[in-house]
Amino acid sequence: MNEPGQSENQDYFVTNLSDIELKHQAIKGGAVSLIAKGLALIIQFISVVVLARLLSPDDFGIYTMATVFTSIFFVFQDVGLTDATIQAPSLNHETLSTLFWINSGIGLIIAIIVCALGPVAVLFFKKSELKLILLASSTAFIFWGLSVQHLALLKRKLQFTEASIISVTSYFLGTLASIIGAMMGMGYWSLVIRDIVSALFVFILTWIFCKWRPGLPRQSSEVNKLVKFGLNSVGFYIVNYFSNYMDKAIIGKKFGSEPLGFYSRAYYIAVTPSSFMSQSLFHVAVSTLSKLREDKKKFQAYYHNALSLISFVGMPFSAFIIILNKELVYILLGKKWAPTAGLFAILGISAGLYIIYQTNGWLHVSLGRSDRWFKWGILSAVVLVSGFLIGMLISIKAIAWAYTISIVILTIPSILYAGKPISIPFSLLAKAISKNTLAAIISGLVFWQIKYHFLDTISLIPRVIISFAIFAIIYLLILALFHRGIKPIYEYFLQIKSGLLGK
Q1: In angstroms, rounded to a whole number, what is the distance separating the alpha carbons of residues 51 and 181?
Q2: Residue 466, C-beta contacts closer than 8 angstroms, at least 6 positions apart
Q3: How far is the C-alpha of 97 from the C-alpha of 73, rounded, in Å?
Q4: pTM
Q5: pLDDT over 70, % of the chain
Q6: How remote is the C-alpha of 314 from its chain's centroid?
Q7: Is 1 inside a domain boundary?
Q8: Is residue 502 over pLDDT 50?
Q9: Total structural domains within the chain
Q10: Domain span at residue 451?
């Protein structure tokens, strides 16, 4: 007798697709995920604009101090089993049920640990408010633990429309709750509420869209194999967490909550668009590449095309935000956040490269080499943290420079190392990003002169709108000149259109 949810949901475990079907699903998944992340990004920036005017730098600083203790568990909570489920060559109901109960149990354990860390956070940062913040934040991990495998199953089946609806809706409702809380004078609690409400609705919506229901857990060699893969992935996430949050911990400890508030907002508006783009494509790319790993040429061709599209958007994004750092900070945060502008410009240098850097994870996970990913995470953490410790002796700006320089140094080696098992050469990387990068740099230099001589006297919002139009035109013209035509640009938009229309 079958367990509930087994016989009626076997289609969740069938992944046989023809090359044409796989290409169609990959393009559609990428387009849907980018649109969803674009919507979430719009929601996020609206919340940045609103909350920056309702809350103080100290509110953001206190919240960021709490995230130093909670964020590690957000990357640890699935024990890498999301990646394991997505890339697994085969999967069945019993195995997935066992993974579900593992994730649910870990979510509960993490919630208890976060509660226990409250006094530690108070002792470290000398802020008594952190104890209750961590207590409340712990509930989010229970909801996430119950959602992990359902989301992974949707992504494994390339059902990114459903996954995107869950992501955008839950984030919108969490943001709405946060803004309402801030308007009611709740201060930093409005930021805490956002995380809890978002996690709650992720849980509710995943169980609505994914009809699979878990059975009883069973031990098997396949479960052991996936857990081993997951532990290597989570090893990377842990060291990556420490490297990415060490700068905030150092600034909060040495310089206090208000300077940390300025730095955290600069980091947020510089890195978030890049992070959103890389996150939106991660599971689409891993799902697709894992099905192509037995065909080296197809694998390399997909990765080359994806890298080219990413650099097409990411590199000019960096150039634009560097030049308009003050204007963007004033519009998004307000003039009281003026000290953020210089930090924003420094961090913006690495914004485009950061998207490219993140693709090394696509390669490691899709090739089933989470062990190599973990090793790379240790190396990159050493580089980043060493830079932060040196920067700490100088200033907050030096810490921002340490982050940017580290990303510049690490990007190309990270991809060559990740691609070694499938022989991805330097020439593929250079061909994919060189023209877009050079066009962005030249466009930035040309536009900087135009802005300095003709646009700086225009009022703020019209200046940004006009600047964007002029910069985009310059960039596309230079890129067309490099390619001796508009074919690559046309193909980029054609791929997006194909994904949207499902052709």
Answers
A1: 10
A2: 455, 458
A3: 22
A4: 0.71
A5: 89
A6: 14
A7: no
A8: no
A9: 1
A10: 7-501
